[in-house]
Design brief:
With 395 residues, the chain is of the alpha+beta class. 33% of the residues lie in helices and 21% in strands. The chain has 12 helices and 19 strands. The chain has a 6-stranded mixed sheet. The protein has a 3-stranded antiparallel sheet with strand order 7-10-11. Helix 9 (165-187) crosses helix 10 (197-210) and helix 11 (272-291) packs antiparallel against helix 12. The longest helix is centred in the middle third of the chain and has 23 residues, at 165-187. It comes from Actinomycetospora chlora.
């Protein structure tokens, strides 16, 4: 999915706080393991505890999926103290759900979850300022009577950027559902002239569900003809026509994890300029994929792909960053763009999605979700990237 809003965790935690957190050795494990990793970051930051209020981060650390929750994680190892001081708070609607999803944690049942957790807290308590409003901060500060609140943005997001084995498996399944949907649409002649953009989008989404997805991971983009020059075009009832470039940007949601893939094809036979444009973007995408490796700055990955397009004279028509992290959120750390500050690590999952957009004529974008490994990048999306697809036309 092209384009990305810059978020606070694109900025290194050390830049915001003056503290450089350490990343403990990562090993496959469940939610308790993730909380252990977080404790290492809390100790490095000089925090006694962290109040987690973002629901995605709560899910990552506990498995709880309700709509009202907060988590207080202490920096000390609870096992060493013979007690579990990490507490999940939620309201009465979720008592049964919390017991089922978080059997390893005590649950505090209160409506005002954040203030309730701080009532008995003490010391230097971090909070994620990226997810707390000014009014919310005032409520938290009033509840904390024996300590101080400290800004601690991005600690959990930094951990989320490197996936464990269970997360990678969910992402593989999400990518497989999207691959299956596209293969089915093509095989059944679903990209033929006369169908509308909206029909194709609905077809992809229904097939993803049939392949095991909970639903689409974001609003499906189907853009035909001149609409393909609009990176985030919303599907309309406009019919596909012979000679149209057709861009489809879509993904599947499996166990809370998002896939993200874009393919550009042609309705009918391509013109020479369309084939040349597709070849150029395919070359840029291949350069971006080849640049993915641990220790590489994400801005350099962006440059590897962008330089191909710029050298061909279309630099101004590549109007967004090359990619982004993907996981429990469709756009998450690390950013892959010309201004990004991140460095790749093994276990990160990112997209590579160069595009060239020619106003009034159409555009091409090719995107894959990839896993960074010690041996390079492994594509999790497997669909062919061809401009022309053979299909069975039902008409």
């Amino acid at each position: 999915m092209s384009g990305r809003t810059r978020t606070p965790y694109d900025v290194p935690f050390s830049t915001l706080t003056g503290v450089q957190p350490t990343r403990p050795e990562r090993a496959p494990g469940g939610h308790a393991r993730r909380r252990d990793l977080l404790r290492g970051a809390l100790r490095a930051a000089g925090l006694d505890a962290l109040l987690v209020t973002d629901l995605v981060n709560v899910r990552y650390l506990t498995g709880f999926t309700g709509s009202n929750a907060a988590l207080l994680v202490h920096a000390g190892d609870d096992a060493d103290r013979g007690e579990d001081r990490t507490v999940l708070a939620t309201d009465g609607r979720y008592t049964t759900q919390a017991a089922a999803q978080t059997p390893d944690l005590p649950v505090l049942v209160q409506r005002a979850v954040g203030p309730a957790l701080l009532g008995a807290a003490a010391g230097a308590i971090g909070f994620d300022s990226a997810h707390v409003t000014v009014d919310g901060h005032a409520e938290l500060a009033a509840a904390l009577t024996d300590g101080e609140l400290r800004r601690a943005p991005g600690l959990v997001e930094a951990l989320r950027a490197v996936k464990d084995a269970g997360e990678v498996d969910a992402l593989r399944q999400a990518c497989a559902a999207a691959d299956a949907a596209l293969a089915g649409v093509i095989a059944d002649g679903g990209l033929r002239a006369g169908r509308s953009e909206r029909e194709v989008a609905r077809d992809l989404e229904e097939r993803m569900r049939e392949a095991g997805a909970e639903g689409p991971s974001f609003e499906t983009i189907v853009a035909a003809g001149a609409h393909a020059a609009i990176p985030h075009h919303s599907p309309t009832d406009a019919p596909l026509a012979d000679g149209d470039l057709l861009t489809m940007d879509f993904g599947a949601l499996v166990d809370g994890y998002h896939s993200d893939m874009t393919r550009t094809t042609i309705v009918g036979a391509p013109a020479e300029w369309q084939r040349d444009l597709h070849d150029l973007v395919a070359e840029a995408a291949a350069a971006g994929r080849a640049a993915l490796a641990p220790g590489v700055a994400t801005r350099d990955v962006d440059a590897a792909a962008r330089d191909v397009i710029t050298a061909a004279g279309f630099g101004e028509q590549f109007v967004h960053g090359l990619g982004h992290g993907v996981g429990l959120v469709i756009h998450e750390a690390p950013a892959v763009s010309a201004t990004a500050t991140a460095t790749l690590e093994a276990g990160m999952t990112v997209t590579v999605e160069p595009g060239v957009y020619l106003a009034g004529r159409g555009g091409v974008r090719i995107e894959d979700t990839l896993l960074v490994t010690e041996d390079g990048a492994v594509p999790l999306t497997q669909s062919p990237r061809d401009l022309v697809h053979e299909s069975r036309d039902e008409t």
